[in-house]
Write a structure and sequence with these properties.
The structure is a homodimer of 272-residue chains. Chain A has 272 residues and is of the alpha/beta class. In chain A, 45% of the residues lie in helices and 13% in strands. The first copy, chain A, has helices at 18-27, 37-43, 45-55, 73-93, 112-133, 156-166, 176-179, 185-192, 225-234, 248-251, 255-269, and strands spanning 5-8, 32-34, 58-59, 62-66, 98-101, 137-139, 170-175, 196-201, 241-243. In chain A, helix 8 packs parallel to helix 9. Chains A and B meet through loops of A and loops of B.
Amino acid sequence: MPAELSLNLATVRKQWTMREAVDGAVRHGFAGVAPWREMVAEIGTAASARLFRDSGLRVTGYCRGGLFPAADAAGRQAAIDDNKQAIDEAAAIGAECVVLIGGGLPKGSRDLAGARAMFADGLAAVLPHARAARVPLALEPMHPMYAADRGCISTLAEMSDLCDRLGEGLGIAVDTYHVWWDPNLAREIARAGKRIISHHICDWLVPTRHMLTDRGMMGDGVIDFPAIRRMIEAAGYRGVQEVEIFSDDWWSRPGDEVLRVVMERFKTMCQP
Amino acid sequence: MPAELSLNLATVRKQWTMREAVDGAVRHGFAGVAPWREMVAEIGTAASARLFRDSGLRVTGYCRGGLFPAADAAGRQAAIDDNKQAIDEAAAIGAECVVLIGGGLPKGSRDLAGARAMFADGLAAVLPHARAARVPLALEPMHPMYAADRGCISTLAEMSDLCDRLGEGLGIAVDTYHVWWDPNLAREIARAGKRIISHHICDWLVPTRHMLTDRGMMGDGVIDFPAIRRMIEAAGYRGVQEVEIFSDDWWSRPGDEVLRVVMERFKTMCQP
């Protein structure tokens, strides 16, 4: 059976339009794609839905929601409304989940625990909408270096706690880049278990020259992908992996070269 | 009672020699200093001991040891020998502890769990020497963004586990920069309790432009210093705080300006 890999379209966002990237994904044998909201907005949800359907590809995730913390009630409500809209878009384009991240501290705030509570509150507020739309929300902890400005929820343990509290309709996204360092990784992947609905891959480079745009191609860094995949399969998830690489380096290369290397590394470096 | 603050000499290492920095620390009302090994090596341990004694300052820590993981047995033994030497130097200069960090992955390795085990083994190997010298080892977890190349031990929980296993002679260093993001911070500081023997302060800037040399002056970033200090005091540590800022920005300013701002921010931003 061929390896199943999905392409997060951020990986080639500087080289290609969404249409070009979908064509590239088909050409290189990907099983699916994961688009971002701004890409879908550019051609509209109806045209996007058609594009994905005609491609024969799965839409393994929709990026992204969450980001609930805000400085005031109006801001928090705006985030909730925006997440509901993202859920509707995901349903319209046939996405299998919406990926949610914590969001950063509100401007001027030093209250990380408060931001985390706002994430939980926002999540609770949009969950009925997600259930009604039958779109699971994939909760993605982000590396602690993003705790201040992007992802205030840093660990799988926190996301599993939220799943325990809020129940049905939630899942977990395990992104190797964000969780590889976790001393409790094996335990927390096992705990996430059947809730795992998304598995992203991306390597950690040494040195990392930029905190956002110097992520690595699998095999170029220090992450042990086979080991993490074994944990994930042991937890019950055997589905598609999704490659997502934010990289000034790879964004500067031709899209076909990037996808060729991605597919090769996926086959040689990422199998359990 | 005046605030008690120690100066980690890395904070002004680009502006000043160790002698100049010690003079500066006295001039600005610091209670102590924490030198680095290369600074002490430059003038020798005997002259360093005299310098500190004559200054009337405490030597609140000696930087640094640990870094046990290595690619082969010879490398690991070299690290153990080097740590014993650091302990002897610390005793000679009257340092109150040696600060130990995890160290990175051996070159070419993707085995983070293995590196962590090597840290534990190295620690166990040097601990009798530290006990005999009556120099406590302050175990400092480092921010997860350093897990690959500097500090494979990322959390207070892991360091407390090591203290539980190895016993007497070990303590914990809580550096706000490394632990502020930890969702279990309050619990793990409480658990560390009386083992806390070192409390470093440094702020997290948004954005952080460089992973090593863009650390922040207290008050310029997002860390809630009073909240963390309250946790630490509740755990039973009421000792000196130690400022340690690696920053291209602050290194480019006159040393007296840096120490003036440090002392001012310590008084206004870091009290419980």
